Amino acid sequence: MKELINWLAEPIRSFPIFTILFILMLKYYKVIGTKKFGWGALIASIPVVAWFAADPNFIKIILWPDNIPINILIVLVSFFTWLTLYKCAENDNRLEAGEVPVEAMPENREKVWSWPNLVYTELFAIIACTVFLIAWAIIFKAPLEEPANPTWAPNPAKAPWYFLGLQEMLVYFDPWMAGVVLPGLIVVGLIAIPYIDTNPKGNGYYTFSERKMAISSFLFGWLVLWVYLIIVGTFLRGPNWTFYGPFEFWDFHKVEAMYNINLSEYIWIKMLNTPMPGNLVMREIFGIILTIFYVGALPVMIARTNFGQKLIEKSGQIRFYIFIFLALGMTSLPIKMVLRWLIDLKYIIALPEWELNL
Amino acid sequence: MSTETRQQLNRREFLSFLSVGWITFTAACAGLGSMAFRFSYPNVNFEPEMEFLAGKPEDYEEGVDERWKNGFGVWMVKQEGKLVALSNICTHLGCIPSWLPAELKFKCPCHGSGYYPSGINFEGPAPRPLERYAISLTPEGLIKVDKTKIFRHEKGQWELASSFLEV
Fold it and tell me: How far is the alpha carbon of B112 from chain A, nearest alpha carbon, in Å?
């Protein structure tokens, strides 16, 4: 059983499993978003967690001081995701029955003064946070190590927990892509949401059925691409950034057979059976064509489809193209990960001479 | 009017007070700023030397030698009659790989890039091979490694004479 879980946890299997679970969650959100399901899942998870925690290798990773925030994060993210679905399901059922959302009922529309109602709540929140942080600082010692040495790195070298998703992304990309371009796109994209998404539905109340596209695409990026990668980077990456299952001992000498090749080598050497051309642009021409197709032609093709036409009608040309560009940026991450797992692809365009790798 | 004590400053006095005060304020800000700027630099610099003598060519056995790794960040690799000084900085994001003698490879602890002893990258996200440093013999027969000059394989610089020693 433990071996099966170790085997399933490997990214090539756990990523599709996680994605399918995510789709199922959105499909059956009315089943999941009930109190019955919430309590049931909580009760069912207790023996599972206990069984996991009985394993010495697992409990060691879980209780490592650096990893405690991720445990808290997993619990909080699951709870708030459930809470959102619960509120969405409640409102959607009411909307179907022709009633107003819960938030629009007269007793919920009553207004109060921010002083003292809000300010007092904030004061108590500040005190509670301070107490919590002090207690945490006393209970868990900071994992300090020896003074920094520029010629030595700890093994595994892990980023702060909130950057572990980014570090996991870097395994599949050039630092310029995963360190600058994609995080930049994430930040710009989040800032752009209010300008791209001008649909007034869902303002001030929870709903899923009226905002299917917006909610699913945001939650996919947040749960599958960010939280999942943080979990993998935290719990499942050991020495040498090798993958270790949740019950696996972090054996320093675990060898992973891996041999990554660039797309240009695949095509020139393996498929066409010729030596690589000397000209750099010629050598990477297939990757360059693919990339231009992906960012240039694909948005135009999507605009021609029914789905694209409907979106353009609702939001306009400029908004549509910005949205599609951001969405393609987001999907480039799973595409690159899957290509790495399936065919050991290193870079689609590999121009280390120009410090340009995609 | 003349015996009356004046309660107000005239225009000239006001301007001179203002300029003295403003100059003092600017000077204080500049002083504080420069102190803060100075504070951001370390008092002692522990950076390894950029040039060092690495003993005689006979000191090295076939394979990877780690004796200068912690002091200078250099692996000496002797292979196929060539002695090279290999940089220990990963070409992906600049972490420090470790030499795994059992697996015969350099492996980066940050994102899992792997290199052969020759420095060629073969696994993980590293886009190019490890860099070589300039290596030469002094008149006394000692090896001199110069880290200010780097040789990159993908630019064909490993063919250059000062990127390796014939042994």
Answer: 5
